[in-house]
Structure formats: C-alpha cells, structure tokens
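Saturday, quiet lab. Running sequence design on the structure tokens for the scaffold JK sent over.
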C-alpha cells in the first residue's frame, strides 16, 4: 500500500534522508525507528506529499503521491499536526479541517474518532483551553475521522496517558486486521514491541534495518530495546 523508492532529501547541505526505500503492505503495522534527527519526520512528510523529495518516488495504493493527489483522501496523517484555531472548539476545528476535503459533514468515522480522542464534553470547548495532550488527541481524531485505510502517524502517542495509548494501540490493531496499512514513528520501544508487525530503522537518514519484528527479535533475548540500541549505537551524535 505504501511504497517509497530511493527517497532523498537535503536541507541546504544537510542530507536529512538518503536513498531510503520502504514498503508497508495492507495488514501491516510498521514502526519507523531511529534516533533524534534520523530523518523519520522528513520521510513521513515525503510519504504524504508535504515535502517534495529531491529524488525518489512514493506510491500509495499504486498511485503516485504529490500534494493534493486524490489518493491522499485515503490517508490518515498525523505529522506536526494540523494548525488548530485556538478560539474555536475542538469539534469546530475538526469541521474546519474537514471542509478542505470538500465532502459533506460529518466525516464517515467522526463518532469513532471523537471516542478515540476521549475528549468527552471538552470537544465543545475552545481549543485554547486544551492541554498539550488534549490537542494531540484532537489531531489524532482529525487523522482517523475520514476512516482511512492508510495511516502515517509521527509519534502519535506523545502526550497520551497509558489508557489512551492502549486505546490507540487497539484501534490501530483493529484497523490493520481489517486491511489497513499503518506506518508509525515512535521512541517508545516497549509500546512498539506490543504494536508493530514490522520494523524499519533509520540512522543518519539511511536505512539500517527493515523486516518483520519477529525475525528481528529471533536472534536476541527478545528485547526490541537491546536490538535497537545495538543497531543505532554511537549514532546519536552522527545525525547532527
Ligand atoms: N525544515 C527543515 N529545515 C532544515 N533542516 C531540517 C528541516 N527538517 C528537518 N531538518 C533536519 O533534517 C534532519 C532530519 O530531521 P527529522 O525531523 O526528519 O528527524 P526525526 O528522525 O524525525 O527526528 P526526531 O526523532 O527528533 O523527531 C535533521 O538533521 C534536521 O535538523
């Protein structure tokens, strides 16, 4: 469903991503892992047309991706978050963001999205009174309310409490079981180990490992943290 081929992106002379290819098939939950500055967000932005690659290509469900491409209507993306309007309520913000799709309100999975966001009656309160976690949950609702079958989520669990993290994990597991392709970035390796079927590790903008989680864990003592730290050891500062 998600196919990225040889993506490269530089910011001035800083090579953020170099020749990166990855695949996420229907039914897979793929975790994109790497140290700070490894190029995860840049990669995800290229996958959904927010950043144009210098080289390489992206296809989703077989269609080339560029900003405004129709296929992006199938994608639930959480990257940097949409700009929220502080003086509008949570639900009014969702309505405003949905208006960009030029489809009739409400979106197909609005109820599910609002429930996942767990904002309760706060959905009708102004966003300027929201905590960081509440804003994150509203942005999550924005990503899922269109009932996407492709997910590109950059650190979606940031600011969520344990119950919300579990609800998100269960939601994504159910969606992937129903045939969705999910790509998620995270630094929470214990959570990733519970959620992901596949792992992609990037360091300094380059792919260092990709494959099924079970294969990755088979050689060690079963800890994703140990495997990940061995793969990325000494690289933390190389990315800066
Ligand atoms: N808009 C930008 N302008 C200039 N440099 C950028 C920009 N966005 C990212 N970079 C640089 O590109 C590299 C990759 O950054 P990116 O945000 O993709 O990494 P990341 O893996 O998502 O990091 P983190 O785990 O901290 O979120 C870094 O060196 C970063 O400083």
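Result came back. Writing it out in full:
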């Amino acid at each position: 469903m998600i196919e990225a081929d040889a993506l490269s992106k530089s910011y001035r002379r800083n090579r953020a991503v170099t020749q990166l290819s990855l695949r996420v098939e229907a039914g897979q939950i793929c975790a994109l892992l790497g140290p700070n500055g490894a190029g995860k967000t840049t990669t995800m932005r290229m996958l959904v047309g927010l950043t144009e690659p210098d080289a390489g290509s992206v296809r989703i469900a077989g269609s080339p991706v560029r900003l405004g491409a129709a296929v992006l209507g199938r994608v639930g993306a959480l990257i940097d978050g949409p700009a929220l309007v502080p003086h509008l309520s949570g639900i009014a913000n969702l309505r405003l963001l949905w208006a960009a799709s030029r489809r009739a309100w409400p979106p197909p999975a609005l109820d599910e999205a609002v429930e996942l966001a767990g904002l309760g009656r706060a959905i009708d309160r102004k966003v300027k009174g929201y905590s960081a976690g509440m804003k994150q949950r509203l942005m999550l609702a924005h990503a899922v309310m269109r009932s996407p079958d492709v997910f590109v989520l950059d650190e979606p669990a940031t600011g969520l409490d344990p119950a919300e993290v579990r609800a998100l994990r269960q939601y994504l597991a159910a969606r992937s079981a129903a045939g969705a392709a999910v790509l998620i970035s995270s630094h929470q390796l214990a959570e990733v180990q519970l959620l992901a079927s596949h792992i992609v590790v990037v360091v300094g903008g380059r792919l260092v490992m990709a494959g099924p989680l079970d294969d990755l864990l088979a050689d060690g003592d079963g800890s994703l943290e140990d495997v990940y730290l061995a793969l990325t050891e000494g690289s933390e500062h190389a990315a800066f």
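Notes for JK: Residues 82 and 139 are 7 Å apart (CA to CA). The mean pLDDT is 92. Ask whether to fix the surface positions before the next round.
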